[in-house]
Amino acid sequence: MSTGYSQTPHIVALARRLEEDIRQRGLKPGDAYLDLKKSARMLGVSSSTANRALQLLTQRGALTRVQRLGTFVSAPPAATGPRALRRVFMIMHRGYLQQEGRLADGLLVGIQSQLPGAEVQFNFLPATDPAPFVHRLLGEILRAKEPAGIVITKAPYVVQRLVKDSGLPAVVHGSLYPSLSGLAWVEQDNPGIARLIARFIRTHAVRQVCVLARETMFPGDNEVLAELGRLLGAAGFSAADFSVRHLPDDPRAIAAEIDAQIARHPTDLCLVCRSDAKAEAAHQHLGTLKLRGRRRPRLIASGVLQHTPGSAPYPCIYPTLPPEEIGAAIGRLLALQVSHPKRPPGSMVEPVALSAG
Prior knowledge:
The chain is α/β, with parallel strands linked by helices. The protein has three domains: 11-80, Arc Repressor Mutant, subunit A; 87-187 and 322-351, Response regulator (Rossmann fold, 3-Layer(aba) Sandwich), CATH 3.40.50; 190-319, Rossmann fold (3-Layer(aba) Sandwich), CATH 3.40.50.2300. Helix content is 44%, strand content 19%. It has a six-stranded parallel sheet with strand order 4-3-5-6-7-13, with helices on both faces. A hairpin with a 3-residue loop joins strand 1 and strand 2 (70-73). Helix 1 (11-24) packs across helix 3. The longest helix is centred in the last third of the chain and has 17 residues, at 323-339.
């Protein structure tokens, strides 16, 4: 069943067809170009779809649209220099600022270090069916006169797909979903996270591993779990020795699951927590159980963003770059898409390390 976001032609492809038409006709900066009606007829699409393609070229500086006068060819970016991004729209789930407030603040500082004139705006996704919200937001961005970029973090597939199809400068802070290789991204070293967890497990000679995973999985979670499963299998663990539980960040749910795991595996158990909240709740609950020696489960946290290295009372895998540097990388990737729109999108892997706890 179609979700609506793939029912119209790809906006980027349409914009490229318009650029090719300009080039084949030998039009120069200042020459008049097709109006909306003629553009739609040439592309074989609706007026609204053609309008988005024209808006995209306007954002890129290839066209200038003047009210009541028409559309005109602009000097290419190489001749005029890249237009600075004026706004950055950060698209995220509603709990982002509560769960990752320190990271969000650092990202803003870093982004604006590279795009000092840009206004950053948070845009929170609805709990269900984010497509209509993102459709409206992209329409507003494309209709605006000021150049804009987008940063996506912890968003479902449909959001990444819609942003990719818009052709706007965009960076995913996280991993890309399959088929969306045309987006820039900045992500932690997920295979490196899995290797650090596996090394911790081998060091402490545990024989049972339970991952307390996020209720909603993202591509990076899948990458970590797949690599961790492969490494544990190579180390002699069986499928029965490795389990994954998808849980809300609720202390009662986490405590109940830990109790169930301990009942099944009274000794040599390791709990891998995939969020700050899960690690905190697990640590607090284990403290109430007063278990000792091999009966006390080992605890390691990955996907942790709130703690500074060494500040947590349990081992944490954390990105070694401060949030400001990550934000600066995102800002550079956005700026490069404006200055070099035909260059393949860039990426950056955030190195990770394990704190002792």
